[in-house]
Amino acid sequence: MTSGDAGTASENTNTSDIRSWRSIVTLIVFVLTNIIVLFPFHIPVPVPIALRDGILKALVSLRIIAPRPPTSPSNGRSKLIWMRFPVNFLTAPLIADLFLLAILAIGKKEVHDGTVGADNISPLDIMAFFLSLAYIAISIDASGLIRYLAFRVLQWGGKVGHRLFFYLYAFFFILTAFIGNDPVILSGTAFLAYMTRVSSNILHPRAWIYTQFTVANMASAILVSSNPTNLVLAGAFDIKFINYTANIIVPVVITAIVLFPFLLYIVFADESLIPVSIKMHELPEEIKNKKPINPNIPNARANMEEQEDEHLNDEAGQLLSLEEIMNPFLDKKGAAFGGIIMAATLIAVLALNASSASSGEHPVFYVTVPAAVILIVFDLALGWMNRKETREIARQSRDKLEISHAEKQQQRRLQPIDELPSAVPSETEPSPISEITPEEEKSPQHVPAAMVTGKSSDSEAPKLEDGKDKTPSKPTTLSSLVVDLWRWAQETFPTSTTVLAHLPLALIPFAFCMFVLVQALVSRGWILVFAHGWDHWVSKTGTVGAIGGMAFLSVILCNFAGTNIGTSILLSRVIQAWQGIHNQTIHPGASPISDRTFWATVYSMALGVNYGAFSAAFSASLAGLLWRDILARKHIRVSRLDFARVNIPIIAISMVVGCVALIAQVYIIRSNEPYDR
């Protein structure tokens, strides 16, 4: 779209629509949806056992799933089972949109504008750009480059705690600025979890993991390509990518400079968090000199995750963690080619965007999608060339894993009967959803049928040791074919399948549904009401009030308005409506917005939606949910209360410093002349 389309959403200045019942319901649904995103839950749904069994029998007859082992009769017990339906950031916005469609609160126009785009915001273009660039960034991560560079930084920092803290702080900041925060959180979080575990005098990883999360989200504000929120903002106000970076980089860098000593000497000023001298356990030479194994290959490290669970706090567990950080795998070809593709793509994107007359003239995904396709072809070709080696590693690891599971099952069989856990859940339990999940039957952790029926495990062990499972084969089904095909793809193309598994695909339905929800607020007049409220605030407080008010709103709404993505969509529409209020073409005689105040508002929002990720709730950003899940897998539990308690002083100082720097910047480089697109 051209810049001339800006403000069309605000041309209807009649706010009387908000009095209709559909408008009121729309606002209530929007608020409830965002509360659910913040506090997800499950709804127990009763399902008749007869219906479940009928569906399962039909699926078995169609050879979609394998036959299930017979279950004991209910003997007069409840004829219902309870399944838990998740209501979260994926399902809640979709349900809200469907509900609004059902009551005719929204229609074809809102769905079109929320997916195809309107007023310079094009969700399809944004998703194509972000996902294609995400593939390139995560492919670089899958090559092992980020962990290898972190290992080198660890070597440079040595055992001096404050120096290592600074090196990692600068490393994560620079890396995120170029490739975005998702790859840095994927690899950096696990690296820090291992690093702090193998240090004898770092009693808690709090300082390191919170600092990394803060820096990753702060630096993502610098480039438009680093965060989808920046893409929404740049598109909404037709900002050239190079101009966006030029206007935001100074406040961000100043924030990073001021924040470091604040973190080191105030927030985390404790020897148990950041010791002056870090005491690291040493990795034995035989392990240090061992050829690292590609972790993207299925079960490449055999039963490492299970060993971590068993040896969490002993020497064996520390050796596993040490090997992860001190003997990292690096695919040099993949890292080099991915780095070249990323650099060339970013340069081409900046050049194309700078040469375009408007943001929609030459969509930047014209560059990123072909670049991602080139890298996909390269990853597939490299995987095919190395398929013999990767398949052999996967086979050997799978055999070791099966033997290990067989040994554990044998140990369980030798336990007294009263020590064995109950293996047959009651059909009246509230969460039997696993009963109808055929994938579990294919997982390596699934207990073999022979062990459930009581056959001798002694006769099973030799079969596994020979690397051949001689148990009766199950009939081929669609689910088994899919599982086998996916395992074959993982063993043949480990990099491509790893990247696919880590792509932020959940962002697609969430973002589209949020775009439609916000468009519903536009069509029902609520956005214009919010814009009038913002206009009154700015008219009373001026440029400084605009910066402070928008910064505060954006951070708060990140926690209560559907993550920072939902916040950027909502506030962009509000600012566009604010433009419409002062559009002299639409409203002759309206006082114009000054250039200084307008851009102060836009860039304070940019600071807020990026910094807001490290504020009070995990759901302030999708990166926060990812960060929490990675830490949980590494046995580091972070509660909601701890997350808010640690982050509130960090976000407070970050926003104050960033806003002060932005105020100084706009008063130096911007004038009070009327803003004119």
From TrEMBL:
<feature type="transmembrane region" description="Helical">
    <location>
        <begin position="543"/>
        <end position="562"/>
    </location>
</feature>
<keyword id="KW-0472">Membrane</keyword>
<feature type="region of interest" description="Disordered">
    <location>
        <begin position="405"/>
        <end position="476"/>
    </location>
</feature>
<feature type="transmembrane region" description="Helical">
    <location>
        <begin position="364"/>
        <end position="385"/>
    </location>
</feature>
<keyword id="KW-1003">Cell membrane</keyword>
<feature type="compositionally biased region" description="Low complexity">
    <location>
        <begin position="425"/>
        <end position="436"/>
    </location>
</feature>
<keyword id="KW-0812">Transmembrane</keyword>
<keyword id="KW-0813">Transport</keyword>
<protein>
    <recommendedName>
        <fullName>Citrate transporter-like domain-containing protein</fullName>
    </recommendedName>
</protein>
<feature type="transmembrane region" description="Helical">
    <location>
        <begin position="602"/>
        <end position="627"/>
    </location>
</feature>
<dbReference type="GO" id="GO:0055085">
    <property type="term" value="P:transmembrane transport"/>
</dbReference>
<feature type="transmembrane region" description="Helical">
    <location>
        <begin position="24"/>
        <end position="43"/>
    </location>
</feature>
<feature type="transmembrane region" description="Helical">
    <location>
        <begin position="648"/>
        <end position="669"/>
    </location>
</feature>
<feature type="compositionally biased region" description="Basic and acidic residues">
    <location>
        <begin position="457"/>
        <end position="472"/>
    </location>
</feature>
<feature type="transmembrane region" description="Helical">
    <location>
        <begin position="126"/>
        <end position="146"/>
    </location>
</feature>
<feature type="transmembrane region" description="Helical">
    <location>
        <begin position="87"/>
        <end position="106"/>
    </location>
</feature>
<dbReference type="GO" id="GO:0005886">
    <property type="term" value="C:plasma membrane"/>
</dbReference>
<dbReference type="InterPro" id="IPR004680">
    <property type="entry name" value="Cit_transptr-like_dom"/>
</dbReference>
<feature type="transmembrane region" description="Helical">
    <location>
        <begin position="334"/>
        <end position="352"/>
    </location>
</feature>
<feature type="transmembrane region" description="Helical">
    <location>
        <begin position="166"/>
        <end position="195"/>
    </location>
</feature>
<keyword id="KW-1133">Transmembrane helix</keyword>
<dbReference type="Pfam" id="PF03600">
    <property type="entry name" value="CitMHS"/>
</dbReference>
<feature type="transmembrane region" description="Helical">
    <location>
        <begin position="246"/>
        <end position="268"/>
    </location>
</feature>
<feature type="domain" description="Citrate transporter-like">
    <location>
        <begin position="124"/>
        <end position="577"/>
    </location>
</feature>
<feature type="transmembrane region" description="Helical">
    <location>
        <begin position="506"/>
        <end position="531"/>
    </location>
</feature>
